[in-house]
Model the fold of this input.
Amino acid sequence: MWLALAQMSALFQRDKSVISRHIGNIFKDGELARDAVVAKLATTAADGKTYQVEYFNLDVIISVGYRVHSKCGVQFRQWATRILRDHLVKGFTINQSRIAERGVSEMQAAIELLSRTLESRALVTEQGQDVLSIIVRYAKTW
Done:
C-alpha cells in the first residue's frame, strides 16, 4: 500500500503540514530510512501536466498513524492494536476476506507447502509429521 501526502492527510483527517511534519520526524528520529519507504512516481494532474509525487509505503502510514492526533488516528491505533494483539495471542493471522475472495485453495496450497518444507528439511519429529498430516487433510475438507 502506498499513499501520497494528500491521501494520508485525507486518511487521518489532518492538514498536509501536520502529516508532513510527522513524516519528517519519522526520518529525523531514524525510525525509518527514507530511501526504503519513499517512491517518486509520475502523476498526471487535472491540468494535464505530469508531476513527480512522493508516495509513502505502509511502514510510513503505520508510523504516522501512531503519531497523529485526530479521531481517525485514534480509530487507526485501536484497529492496529487489536490486530497486533490478536496475532500475538493466537500466534497467527488469517485474512478472512482474502480467503473469501480467493477461495480456500490458496490456504490449502500454503498449508501443503509448509508441510512439504518442514518434512523435507527434517524440521519436525515423527509425531509432528502426523500432526501436519492431520492439518493437511483437515484443510482439504474446507
Q: What stands out?
A: The helical segments are 5-12, 16-28, 34-37, 58-65, 71-90, 96-102, 105-120, 126-140. The beta strands are 2-4, 38-44, 50-57.
